Amino acid sequence: MGANWIVTAVVVVYLIAMLFIGWYSSTKINSNTDFMVAGRRLGPLLMAGTLAATEIGGGSSLGVVQNGMSGYGLSAAWYIITMGLAFVILSFVAPKFRAATVKTVPEYFRRRYGKESGLITAIIMLLPLVGLTAGQFIASSVILSTMLGLSYKVSVIIVAVVVTIYSIMGGLWSVTLTDFVQVFLIILGMLAAVPFALGYAGGWNAVVSNVPKETMNIFAKYDLFGIVSLVIMYVGTFSVGQEAVSRFYAAKNETAAKQGAWLAALINFIYAFIPTVLGIIVLALINMGKFSDSEFAAVGARYALPILAIRTMPAIICGLLFSGVISATMSSSDSDLLGAGSIFANDIYKIYIRPKASSNEVMNVTKITMIIVGVLSMFIALFNTQSIVSILMFCFTLRAAGSFFPYVLGHYWPKASKAGTIASLLCGTIVVVYLEHISKGYLFGFHFSQAIIPGLVFAFIGFIVFSIIFPPQNQTTELIHEDED
């Protein structure tokens, strides 16, 4: 598909701007703490922007458009609304996360429960970050190639190079500033598409009269259990995922951490209905015969909106939409990349390989790890090795199931112990592996669409029981001191 040169120019300017922000951020870096947690100086606005951008990815933009047009209708918005509800819940524990003054989740486990727990969580959390980075590279590259008419492999190289360079230049400073720009691009790009799509359809009344009645039912595809399951999944993954929780560590104080979570929730609540409505409009246009599903058959239903945009929108709006959609996936991949580098350098290299490593040495190892993960993810994306991505993404569920309760309750319950933590990690892991790879979702005759929920239940039981049977010698929520650099 030939791309209009104005559309291409807008996207190129966007990519260059991301690199400029990376360079600018590099001038703010003086220590490892600056690099990993932005010097713990983020206010509520920057925190909210980077939190929202990190979690609003390809699934929350084009994926929701696809759901909106393929039977979910208005209920597709729950995919993003529940993210906002998760941020509201996390706002109550965010001050505790910030008060711990750690740089990574495995560091918390190490200082709270001992080196063994720190190493296990470092390994559990490092693997999914590689898979998430590769998955976002694939999503970004398919979007770039579809929208600009580039080859898929050229798109992979462009995305991997741009994201890796700006991420390693400024660490969390550059990731935060690029995310802040990207979250507005995501919202504005998708929002700008609405009036043009509506105009092409002949107005909202024409849209409503050309879609099935249940399309406007916000509970069409989600009942209360489905909504609660999504909230639980998001709370579990956001609270222990390094790519998300590092934002709480980077807040300038406990109040900023709480306010940032509330603002991120507000962004999600507002944004949720934009891709949903666009999906409904696309469905109406197909039913009217104004837009044929054969036009996006080659690339899949997820790309219906970009192809409609090329046909119906001014080049400048089209470029803005494309930049927004590309930034949705890039703003997730940069966080995954930084998370992987931070965990390896802070929790494996500094603890087991070079305990006396200086702040600058740890920061350099973080950057080298990010380059390695970036290159590895690029090759996985180049060959579109979905089987590898699926294996690594499986770890995404694993990390939340076993580590959630030791991490969250460890801030409040002095009797939480190393034995309880290891039991939680093992129980959560075993149940998730069993459900996803052995029983195909069945446990005790019940079917679970989300393996994380029974995983969390058994992890909680293991954590409480073993913490009571084998209590810690010192019953305190205080962490063992480590020098911060």
UniProtKB/TrEMBL annotation:
Keywords assigned by UniProt, alphabetized: Cell membrane, Membrane, Transmembrane, Transmembrane helix, Transport
Q: What membrane topology term does the record carry?
A: Multi-pass membrane protein
Q: Which GO terms describe its molecular function?
A: transmembrane transporter activity
TM helices/strands, residue ranges:
6-24, 45-64, 76-97, 118-144, 150-173, 180-202, 222-240, 261-286, 306-328, 362-382, 388-409, 421-439, 451-470
Q: Which domain of life is it from?
A: Bacteria
What CDD domains is this protein classified in? SLC5sbd
Q: What Gene Ontology cellular component terms go with this record?
A: plasma membrane
Compartmental location: Membrane
InterPro entries documented for this protein: Na/Glc_symporter_sf, Na/solute_symporter, Na/solute_symporter_CS, Sodium:Solute_Symporter
Q: What is its main location?
A: membrane
User: Per the UniProt entry, what are the Gene Ontology biological process annotations, in alphabetical order?
Assistant: carboxylic acid transport
Q: Which family does it belong to?
A: Belongs to the sodium:solute symporter (SSF) (TC 2.A.21) family.
Official protein name in the record: Transporter, SSS family
